[in-house]
Amino acid sequence: SRREPIMIFKSGDVVHVSADVDDDGETDEVMGNDVMEAVWSRVIGGRLMDLYLRQTRRSQLFMAYPDVVRTYWAWDWAEYGGANDWFPRGWPGLVWNNDWNYKVLESSAGALRLSAETRLEEKLILRREMVLRAKSDLLELNYTVENAGPKPNSFVWCGHPDVAPGGSAGPEDLVASDTWSMGFRADLSKDQVRPATGQAIARDGKTGE
Description:
Layout: E1 15-19, E2 28-32, E3 36-41, E4 48-53, E5 58-59, E6 83-86, E7 101-107, E8 111-119, E9 124-133, E10 139-147, E11 158-161, E12 174-179, E13 183-186, E14 200-203
Antiparallel strand pairs: 1-2, 2-3, 3-4, 4-5, 6-11, 7-8, 8-9, 9-10, 12-13, 12-14
């Protein structure tokens, strides 16, 4: 079953906690306010592992990790769930399963800013800034790519979320995505989605939400 949120804080504040919330032996970064709780991993691609809404008491993401054992190769795909980054080219990219470095840029009662980055051997640096403000229903993500090498480089970036309608994922749920060849269709299985489109609709078969 889905864990209870770990945050204990004064209403109206935004807080940050570093803790191993999934018992995988690695430190996770948790951002929380009155509206939501976001849990980021330092491993498995620095992914967003959980986006928990306090009003509905439900997570918005499907998460199979750590029940799905971690692999250690970028080309050995494992369906961990959560939301990760596809970068810099070729499916599934090179950053979905590696370690990321996190640091706090700002921490106050009104706003929290974290930064995470990962570096590739080909001299590309992918950096993500996460911003959560007190009482806000918006988790803001800002990405930058730095070429630390002497020559021009190219890349592709795409967000890769696994949504969980109603906080779970099962055969009764429908996920509609804009596929390459068939337009929109309702299916639990995932299809290749145009990175520029960014459209997805999820329906919980139990609640109708």
